[in-house]
Amino acid sequence: MAHRLTTLICAIFLFSACGPNENPPPAPKLFEEQRDALDKAKAVDAEQQKLAEERRKAIEQQTQGN
After folding, report:
1. Residue 20 has pLDDT above 60, yes or no
2. pLDDT higher than 60, residue 65
3. How far is it, in rounded angstroms, from Cα 63 to Cα 55?
4. Which of 1, 16, 28, 46 has its CA at a distance of 20 to 30 angstroms from the CA of residue 62?
């Protein structure tokens, strides 16, 4: 039993060492549209936060100037 287990472990290491490790497998295409929509939503949210911060700074400058 131990001999079979050792042989199995050696075979697993041998096959994993011989595989092409340079090119990782491509990411699955599952939910690609949903991921793209989420990425776009994150970009829009970041832009909105940036604009809100710019408006807040402009209002602060106007109130300090008066």
Report:
1. no
2. yes
3. 12
4. 46
Q: Report how far Cα 15 is from the mean position of its chain's Cα atoms.
A: 29
CA distances from 13 to 16, 17, 63 (A): 5, 6, 69
- The two structure tokens encoding residue 11: 């075979």
The domain total for the chain is: 1
Average pLDDT over residues 7-25: 69
Domain boundaries, position 43: 31-66
Q: Which long-range contacts (CB under 8 A, 24 or more apart) does 46-54 make?
A: none
Mean pLDDT, the chain, rounded, equals 83
